[in-house]
Amino acid sequence: MKIFSATGKIVVFIIILGLVSLMGYAIFGNRVSVKTSPLIGQQAPPFTLKTFDGKELKLSDLEGKIVLLNFWASWCMPCRQEAGALETSWQKYKDKDVVFVGVNVWDENSNALKYLTNFGGGYPHALDPDEEIQINYGVGGVPETFFIDSSGNVRDKFTGPLTEQIIDYFVLKAKQPQEDKS
Amino acid sequence: MINFSIKNNPILYSIFIIALFVSFQSQSLSNQEKSIDDQTKEISYLLMCPVCQGQSVGESNSNLAHDMRDIIRKQLEAGRSKEEVLAYFVNSYGESILASPPPKGINWLLWLLPGVGIIIGGIGITLFLFKAQREDKNEDSQESNTQPKMDNEYIKRIEEELEDSDS
């Protein structure tokens, strides 16, 4: 039994070809342009944090410096894993206009203080009293780290535990002029 | 006789007016509260929880979903519209935060393909059934054309044999 005429066969062939092309694009399409955060290339959301030693820390006060904004929690094991690398890198960059800021999220204050005693390092750690900074930055879990350049633009986001090499890579990248703001 | 008519009693009348006013005010506040609750719930089901497996913000009990619901409520209370609240989350998390992709750009395919698939499938099945029915009819008509011819030959032969037997 003949189901499709010659024209019908061509239409079916075109439809199948279209679907296969779509699948091919989905599998092998250009992934280089996929961003880890929609904030990359955009002005960093402003924040006013309260440090664990009671000071106010504003992003606007850090203008002209590269900011490494690291989100952590005391219950987060990968955060402990990256603590050493963060401290070593902070020692390396603290006099080079690179500011490290730790932001404690989804945590109990007492647990956070205990964590800081063991893993805190020398750079400032803070809380957002309004608990909004994690949503403003699109944080989905911890640890997540944002690299903000001296103009206040988010340059990169890294999800997972940092190493010294990763920090070097992103700090150097943030020092380079921004190529594409799109 | 004591007159209990409210209109004739200024004190009762005042109390009645105040009670009515308070009742309206509380009713209005309650409606507003309910409205923000409903809107928060509605928006929370339009957003996917970024740390959960296939759960919306409305369904999830994670800390993040809890924070997100609080922010939805705060923004609604601040007078932001549903679209503005959704845009805020898209700006932070990207379009993948939305439970259903917005119908624009290549996303149109996601909205159109199921419908197109159903239409093409329907046309295919209709064509198949139509052709199958037509072929059945052809076969039937071929059979009905050959039947009388065979019957005639058979009758003719019987008649001939009968004649032969008579003779």
Overall strand count of chain B = 0
Largest sheet of chain B: none
Radius of gyration of chain A: 23 Å
Q: What fold name goes in the CATH topology slot of the largest domain in chain A? A: Glutaredoxin
The multimeric state of the shown protein is: heterodimer
Termini separation of chain B (Å)?
Answer: 134 Å
Number of strands of chain A: 7
Q: Which value, in Å, is the CA radius of gyration of chain B? A: 39 Å
How many helices of chain B? The count is 4
Strand content of chain B: under 5%
CATH architecture of the largest domain in chain A: 3-Layer(aba) Sandwich
* CATH fold-level label of the largest domain in chain B: Helicase, Ruva Protein, domain 3
- Helix/strand order of chain B: HHHH
- Helical residue percent band of chain A: 25-40%
Going across the biggest sheet of chain A, name each strand in turn.
2-1-5-4-3-6-7
What does the average pLDDT of chain A come to?
Answer: 91
The share of residues in helices of chain B is: over 70%
Give the tally of structural domains of chain A: 2
Overview of the molecule:
The complex is a heterodimer of chains A (182) and B (167). Chain A is an alpha/beta fold. Chain A folds into two domains: 1-33; 48-175, Glutaredoxin (3-Layer(aba) Sandwich), CATH 3.40.30. Helix content of chain A is 37%, strand content 19%. Chain A has five helices and seven strands. Chain A has a seven-stranded mixed beta sheet, with helices on one face. In chain A, strand 3, helix 2 (77-93) and strand 4 form a beta-alpha-beta unit. The longest helix of chain A is centred in the N-terminal third of the chain and has 23 residues, at 6-28. In chain A, 30% of the residues are buried. The model of chain A has no long low-confidence stretch (mean pLDDT 91). Chain B is mostly helical and 167 residues long. Chain B folds into two domains: 1-100, Cytochrome C biogenesis protein (Helicase, Ruva Protein, domain 3, Orthogonal Bundle); 103-167. Helix content of chain B is 73%, strand content 0%. Chain B contains four helices and no strands. Chain B has helices spanning 10-44, 63-77, 82-93, 107-166. In chain B, helix 1 packs across helix 2 (63-77). Chain B is elongated, with a radius of gyration of 39 Å. The termini of chain B are far apart. At the A-B interface, helix 1 and helix 4 of A face helix 2, helix 3 and helix 4 of B.
